[in-house]
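In keeping with the milestone schedule agreed at the kick-off meeting, the structural modelling team has produced records for the first pair of proteins. Each record is given below as a sequence line and a C-alpha cell line. The laboratory manager (R.T.) confirmed that both were archived under the project's standard naming scheme.
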Amino acid sequence: MAKKAKAILVDERLCKGCHICISVCPHGALKKAENVDNRGFFLPTVVDLEACKVCKLCEMECPDFAITVVVEE
C-alpha cells in the first residue's frame, strides 16, 4: 500500500523562505505563500496534500531542517 502524508509541517521559526522545498517537490504539493510572515519571508505552504507521495525530498533538501512530512499510519 502506498504511503500517504498526514501533514507537511513547516517550522516558521526555522524557515527562511528559500523555497528549495518547493523546487524539489516533484508532485507540486507546496507553493510560496501569498503573504509574508512577521520576518518578511514568503514561507512555503501546502497546496495539495493528496499530491504528496511521501518522497520526503522537501525534508531532506531543507538546509534549515524546517520541514517535516508526517506519514499516516
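The second protein of the pair:
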Amino acid sequence: MANIGSRIERIPDNKYNRKLLVISGFGNTFDSMDIAMVAFVLPSIIGLWNLSSGQAGLLGSSVLIGYFFGALLSGYLGDKIGRKKVIMYTLVIYCLATLVSAFAGQWEHFFWLRIIAGFGTGGESAILAPYLAELIASKYRGKYIGALTGFHSFGYVAAAVLAYFIIPMSDNGWRLAIFITALPIFLVIYWRRVLPESPRWLESAGRLQEADQEMKKMEKSVEKALGEKLPAPAATTASPAAQQKGSFFALWKRAFVKKTIMLWVLWFSVIFSYYGFFTWLPTLLYNEGFEISKSFGFSILIYLAQIPGYFSAAFLNDMIGRKKVIVSYLGLASVSAFFLSQADASTAILIAGFFTSLFMVGAMAGMYTYTPEQYPTIIRSTGTGSASAFGRIGGLLAPIYIGFMYPILGFIGVFLMTTGVLFIGMISTLLLGDETKSKPLDEIADEKIDVDTKEEVDSIESSSEWKVN
C-alpha cells in the first residue's frame, strides 16, 4: 500500500479541495468575528457597568488571554487525539461561552466567559492551518493555506457591519450582537459529517487501517469532483509511520531549534504589531485631532484592506514562495507604518493605514502557510500551536505597552516602534528561514533531519529518546 503522502501528492486541484477550504474557512471567519466584536461592544459595556479604564482594558484583553492557552493546548492535543476532534471541541467551547456571555449580568462574569470563548477561538485557529495543509498536495498548499487565513478578514468586516446595524438598535443591542456570533454552534453538526480526519495524522499515529479508509473516502470524493479516476500514486521507498511520539520539547531538538526560534520571533512581531495597530490606531488618531478616526467608513476601509492583503499573499505563496512573501510583505508593512507615523492629513492617514493593514495581514497569510511546513506530522500541530500561542503574548502586550509609551513617544514614536518590530520579524525570517515552496510535507521533514542533523537523530533513535522519520 502506497503511503499517505504519495497518495495526496498525486491529487490535482479540484472542487473537493475548494469545498474543504470553504468549510474550514468558516471557522476562521467566525473566530475573527467573535474576537473583533468585543471591541465594538466595549463602549456599551463600559457605560452599562460603569467600568474604569483598567477594567475595560482587562475586558479588551480577555479573549487574547484565552486565545494564548487555547492555541498552546490545542496544538498539543491535535498531535495526541487528532485534528478533527480538536476542531470540533474548540468550536463548541467558543460558541457556548459566547452564547452565555451575551446574558452576563456583571462585568466579571463577562470577563471570564470571554476568556473561555478565547480559549475556543485560539484553539480552533491554531489547528485549522496544519489540518488543511495535510490534506492538500504541495503544488497547491501555499494558495490554499493563504486563502484559509484570508477568511479571517471576512470575520472582521462582518463584525464591523453587524456592530454598525445591531448595537445602536437598543440598550441591549450589544447582547444581540454577541448572541449572533455564537450561532456557528450549528456548524459542528455539519463538520462532524463532512470533515475527514487527517490521514497523515492517522498514519503517524500507527492507525494505518483508519488512515487508508479516510484516504479512500477522500479519493472517492475527488474522483467524483473530477469525473475521472485518479492516477496511481508514485512509487516510494518510505515506509508508513509507526506509532511515533512527539512532544513540546521536540521543538527544541537540534533538528528544529532554529526553525522554532525563527517562527516564535516572526509570530511575536507580526501579532504584536497587528493588535497594537488595530487596537490603538483610532484612539491615537483622535487624540491627535483627526476626526476621521471616529467614522464608520474609516474602520471599514482598514478592515477591507485585509481582503486584498490575505488573498494577494495567498496567490503569491505558490508563485514566489512563502519566505519571499513574508519578507517582502513585512518590509512593505514597515515602510507603510513609517509613512503613517509621518502622516499629517486625513488622506495620507487613510492611504498609509490601508497599506499598513494590507501588508501586515499579507505577511500573516505567508506565516500561517509557512509554519506547519517546518515540522513533521507528529509535532506539526504542537509546533504551529506553540508559535501561535507565543505570538499571542505579543498581542496581549502590545495594547498595554503602547498605552504606556504613547505619552512618552507620541504618535510618531509609536508607529516608528511598530516599524522596528515588523523589521525584526522580517530579518528573523530572512536569516533563519528556508524556502518550502512546492515541497511535499514528508520531503521537508526529511530534509531537516536526514541532511542537517543526521548524526543527532541517529543517536536519538539508538537511545529510544525520541523517534521521527
